[in-house]
Amino acid sequence: MIPYGRQSIDESDVHAVVAALRSDWLTTGPAVEAFEAAVADLAGTARPAVAVTSGTAALHVAYAAAGVRSGVKVITTPFTFAATASTAALLGGRVVFADVEEATGNIDADAVEAELDEDTAVVAGVDYAGVPIDAARLRPLANAAGALLLEDAAHSLGSTLDGRPVGSLADITTFSFFPTKNATTAEGGAVVTDRSDLWERSRSFRNHGLVREPSLQRYPDEGAWHQEVHEFGLNYRLPDVLAALGSSQLLRLQSFKDRRAAIHARYGAAFEGLDGVVLPSAPPRADPMWHLYPLRVPSERRRNIFDALRADGIGVQVNYVPVYWHPVFEDLGYRRGMCPVAEDWYRREISLPMHAGLSDDEVDRVIESVRSALR
């Protein structure tokens, strides 16, 4: 089976992990600091990234830093993995879904504008398949309403918009380093921002909310051992072993991007002009790191095409079930039909294999199988 996504590991990664295991630090050490600096450099932020244990943890941290709490409104896309919405809901946020653009699958700024009001704390967009959201329009819209723009960039580390890297476009941005993502730490994530308040709150939340600086403590004279918790947080610290893997991976990020672009171009040339098929696209302003290759096929045939590809050893996937279709949201009163463009994307979408380790022969095999299934 050719997987739709997988990690690309070489001996340099293995060496980096072994070196971390042999060091004096397994967690909260220099490998984490080095990784945080490397992520910030790629993201174009002056402050180091806040490394955490997963992309989901990154979202939880970012929403907490943004002040999401009971009753405040969070506008987000339904066309994403559930964590983009569930982490806001777990903090008590009132999640409102805005529909997506037909061309990209990204959150639609017009739909967001229609939902914005004084209760909105965060607008959270997702860089679907690696294509950056329209932050140039979304951020002023959100900020004018007193809200923050959060960019869920789980798909888009290495992407740019108008020549600026993802990570520098929104008020706060989250990354994922799951094995299928553009670079991996096995499990891991990160938060980046250049706002000092959001950065400090992110760092605090990922470490139990601990306050160790005497000047900030309520009872600073207890002794050198003293630490306090002023606001609740969690242990979302990324270990040095995983951070070392991440730093090694980031050294090859451009080569990963180049290979994904070549695969994308090869697919595009093979499928251009096929009846009933829509190819993934990006606006001219964007230079995506293609995380997915989301092919749209006739909805009435999608199940049969998907099953035929799987039977032929092509590990296709569907990304994503609209979030509010999940029973946990259905039980909260959300109903199908709310975001028709996102639902049409779901009914037609099949993610073809897309990762840096795919050989040309494997890509050709995918192409042959897809063309056969579409006949």
Automatic annotation (TrEMBL):
<dbReference type="InterPro" id="IPR015421">
    <property type="entry name" value="PyrdxlP-dep_Trfase_major"/>
</dbReference>
<comment type="similarity">
    <text>Belongs to the DegT/DnrJ/EryC1 family.</text>
</comment>
<dbReference type="InterPro" id="IPR000653">
    <property type="entry name" value="DegT/StrS_aminotransferase"/>
</dbReference>
<dbReference type="Pfam" id="PF01041">
    <property type="entry name" value="DegT_DnrJ_EryC1"/>
</dbReference>
<keyword id="KW-0663">Pyridoxal phosphate</keyword>
<dbReference type="InterPro" id="IPR015424">
    <property type="entry name" value="PyrdxlP-dep_Trfase"/>
</dbReference>
<dbReference type="InterPro" id="IPR015422">
    <property type="entry name" value="PyrdxlP-dep_Trfase_small"/>
</dbReference>
<protein>
    <submittedName>
        <fullName>UDP-4-amino-4, 6-dideoxy-N-acetyl-beta-L-altrosami ne transaminase</fullName>
    </submittedName>
</protein>
